[in-house]
Amino acid sequence: MTATTQSVLVTGASGFIARHVLLQLLERGYRVRGSLRTPAKAEAIRKDLRAHLGDPALADTALDFVTLDLTADAGWPEALAGMDALIHTASPFPLSQPRDPQVLIRPAVEGTRRALEAALAAGVDRVVLTSSVAAVLTSAPLDRAAPRTEADWTDPDHPATTPYGASKTLAERAAWAIAAAHPALKLTTVNPGMVMGAPLGTEFGSSVGLVRRMMRGGDPALPRMVFDVVDVTDVARMHVAALETPATIGERLICSAGPMWMPEMGAALKKAYPDRRIPTRVAPYWLLWLIARFDPALRSVLPICGQHMVSDAGHARRLLDFRFVPPERALLNTAAHLVATGAV
């Protein structure tokens, strides 16, 4: 905990990343407030946190919840009252992309603006924003030898940019524009890759859903697609480290342990679970094109199949002296959780 930061508002508190952020903040002695769209989820989150906290009572004594909506002004002043910092994780993250990109873009951008402007109005000047490598990777040329860095930005108008990628890019751009207009605002963005690992509770994100799909063996082969992989515990740890490290102010931080191609993922899962029907073959492009006609999730990413689109987290590693869980271990942590909970 820093000398000036003791209380933190975490938006989107029911999310995959956010629950781990809550856990790490509580373990480090912060007073934490989580925002939810549905207050009925509060007790389930407390229960999930109690099971992992060194002192389970912290889930009751150091954590409270407020109800907020990214698309509405109500409640933001009250939510930020008494807070020293904001960690804004809330943003839509679907497995399949919507027909209308604005379904994702509007709440992501409006929610980010609303959160940062409310923080400024409340005198909260320290903000850590959850962005994504989706805001880094997609620009011409797609296939390039050199990895992307924090200096790279996704082109929202590129034909290969998904609605999700556009939403994260435009939301992060909006955050940096607000920071530029208000020099007192101390902003850091964390840009995770595909987030793997064990969820806290039964709810999990789209990346874990992808691993579940692979382990269920419904696909005959896997697309040759590459993902920057990171364990959710490292994503949460980087958020907290960014909050506590003044040198990260004004920085974008790529959060990735390294790349894995989907056939590599399949091979690693098959090796760990040889009795399961897990695909390992590479799907030919013609087959992907055919399946994509009926599968919206595949259709949205077909343009990046075979493209070498990876990022380099070297800047964040050096700035924070950060060590990541290896990509394959993060993948297997996901699989172990799915098996243990009966999700596959």
TrEMBL record:
Q: Name one GO molecular function term.
A: oxidoreductase activity, acting on the CH-OH group of donors, NAD or NADP as acceptor
- Tell whether Oxidoreductase is among the UniProt keywords: yes
Gene3D superfamilies listed in its UniProt record: NAD(P)-binding Rossmann-like Domain
Q: Which InterPro entries match?
A: Epimerase_deHydtase, NAD(P)-bd_dom_sf, NAD(P)_dehydrat-like
The protein's superkingdom reads Bacteria
Q: Does the keyword Glycosyltransferase apply?
A: no
Q: Which residues form the NAD-dependent epimerase/dehydratase domain?
A: 8-250
Keyword set for this entry?
Answer: Oxidoreductase
Family indicated by similarity:
Belongs to the NAD(P)-dependent epimerase/dehydratase family. Dihydroflavonol-4-reductase subfamily.
Q: What's this protein's name?
A: NAD-dependent epimerase/dehydratase family protein
Q: Which organism is it from?
A: Pseudooceanicola pacificus
